[in-house]
Specification:
With 437 residues, the protein is α+β, with helices and mostly antiparallel strands. 30% of the residues lie in helices and 27% in strands. The chain contains eleven helices and 18 strands. The radius of gyration is 27 Å and the shape is elongated. It starts with 15 loop residues before the first strand and ends in a 20-residue tail after the last helix. The structure holds 4-amino-1,4-dioxobutan-2-aminium adenosine-5'-monophosphate and magnesium ion. 4-amino-1,4-dioxobutan-2-aminium adenosine-5'-monophosphate (4AD) binds next to strand 11, strand 17, strand 18 and helix 11.
């Protein structure tokens, strides 16, 4: 394969090269044709002098060329300071059309006013937009930074099954699938299996994988399938250790993103990547609600008492910025009625937290209950029986104290770039009304 990428072209000045890419723009002037070519790393100009008789065939090919076709060009790469794109241009000797593009259904360079569903129907075209391209790179970089940090802390990456026998965790909605005439479910979280790894003695594990939620809700932050970045670690003393670890993990990820893409994010999205400092502010839910009442005259709706909702998440951000100049805030001491049975409790208070970033929950975490008898008590209280029997078994044969958290990758990307909704954030959005492409 002889593909040379745009960002490596400067190594080939004055050489005969072959370059393949998309036709980004065509400017057919009286005396000259300019074709801007594009690959995933940038753009380069190709220039054809019409007056040169040897170019007759090339001129004809370019005259029939359509935008976004993919072509392969052979020619000489020369320096030309007058060319804005990298001060170089390709002078072609041959052009081969590898794939001819039809007229595009919309201009991906100008998505203002293009319906989001049209964009999603043609997501592969929508992704050609420079911002959407950057979003993918930023997400990859964030995950890379976090992964690297975990490897440096001796974590083991695991891959847990997504097809499971029982509706898991908290009875929150799961997808049922036909399994050779019987029922199976899609995992809403690797929760039980990452805990199983703790019972196995693996100490520190993580997984980056899809999680499925059969929630028929259309919000800007919910998808029916999303990517969950899950951590579980043993021998902790309290959930404070888990929060502390998450701080380091996010700092590692955001540092990498800022270094590599900080300027580009600022340029295209107008967002500053802010690497937070430790420790992030923490507040008990009850204290937070008092502040909401005093500051914003906000009364928590009856059904949300002991829990958070979207309005409260927004106010948390406002308050955290104002009081601590922090984009992040941990909230602790939720009501046991609102938290899953596997959270350890102390004096009836779940030993867990949510982390709010820029006004949205990005994480739920906790110390887990590793003592069989206590776990059984919690499960019974929640009315969970048969469904969690297999999970209860994990704690019968020795299991270290442990805790962990789940971090929504899609939400991280969305908040990092200040995008309006998870629909335009996910590579391919999955929601109640969308299963294609
Ligand atoms: O808060 P959640 O439901 O927590 C759990 O999954 C637990 N088992 C804890 C764990 O250790 N995994 O999900 C964790 C995170 C949320 O904070 C949110 O960022 C994201 O996953 N998330 C979603 N993202 C997009 N669409 C949805 N429907 C999401 N549900 C949760
Ligand atoms: Mg949660």
């Amino acid at each position: 394969m002889d593909k040379i990428y745009v960002n490596k072209l400067s190594n080939y000045i004055d050489s005969e090269i072959s370059f393949s890419g998309f036709v980004d723009t065509i400017r057919d002037k009286k005396w000259v044709q300019f074709v801007i070519l594009r690959d995933s790393t940038g753009k380069v100009q190709m220039t054809i002098e019409k007056s040169d008789e040897n170019n007759a065939k090339l001129v004809e090919i370019v005259s029939n060329l359509t935008k976004d076709s993919v072509i392969k060009v052979k020619g000489k790469l020369v320096k030309n300071d007058a060319v804005k794109l990298g001060g170089m241009e390709i002078i072609p000797s041959s052009i081969e059309v590898l794939s001819k593009a039809e007229e595009l259904p919309f201009d991906y360079n100008n998505l203002d006013g293009v319906n989001i569903d049209t964009r999603l129907d043609y997501r592969w075209l929508d992704l050609r937009n420079e911002k959407n391209m950057l979003a993918r790179q930023v997400e990859s970089c964030m995950v890379e930074g976090m992964r690297e940090y975990l490897y440096s802390c001796d974590f083991t990456e695991i891959h847990t099954p997504k097809l499971i026998k029982t509706a898991s965790e908290s009875g929150s909605s799961v997808f049922k699938v036909d399994y050779f005439g019987g029922d199976a479910y899609l995992a809403q979280s690797p929760q039980f299996y990452k805990q199983m790894c703790m019972a196995a003695g693996m100490s520190k594990v993580f997984e980056v994988a899809p999680a499925f939620r059969a929630e028929n809700s259309n919000t800007n932050r919910h998808a029916t399938e999303f990517t969950s970045f899950d951590i579980e670690m043993s021998y902790i003393d309290s959930y404070e250790d888990v929060m502390d670890f998450e701080e380091d993990l996010l700092i590692a990820g955001l540092t990498k993103v800022k270094e590599r893409y900080g300027d580009k994010i600022k340029e295209l999205f107008g967002k500053e990547v802010i690497v937070p400092t430790k420790p992030f502010p923490k507040i008990r839910l009850e204290d937070l609600c008092k502040i909401f009442k005093e500051k914003y005259h906000y009364d928590v709706p009856e059904h949300d008492i002991g829990d958070m909702n979207a309005d409260m998440e927004h106010m948390t951000y406002e308050y955290a910025m104002e009081k601590y100049n922090s984009e992040f805030m941990f909230i602790t001491d939720f009501s046991k009625t609102k938290r899953p049975f596997y959270h350890m409790r102390k004096n009836d208070v779940p030993q867990g937290y949510d982390l709010i970033w820029r006004g949205m929950e990005i994480t739920s975490g906790s110390q887990r209950e590793h003592r069989y008898d206590e776990l059984l008590k919690n499960a019974k209280e929640k009315g969970l029986g048969k469904d969690v029997e297999f999970y209860m078994e994990f704690f019968k044969y020795g299991c270290p104290p442990h805790g962990g958290f789940g971090l929504g990758v899609d939400r991280l990307t969305m908040l990092l770039l200040g995008l309006n909704s998870i629909k335009e954030t996910q590579l391919l959005f999955r929601g109640p009304n969308r299963l294609t492409p």
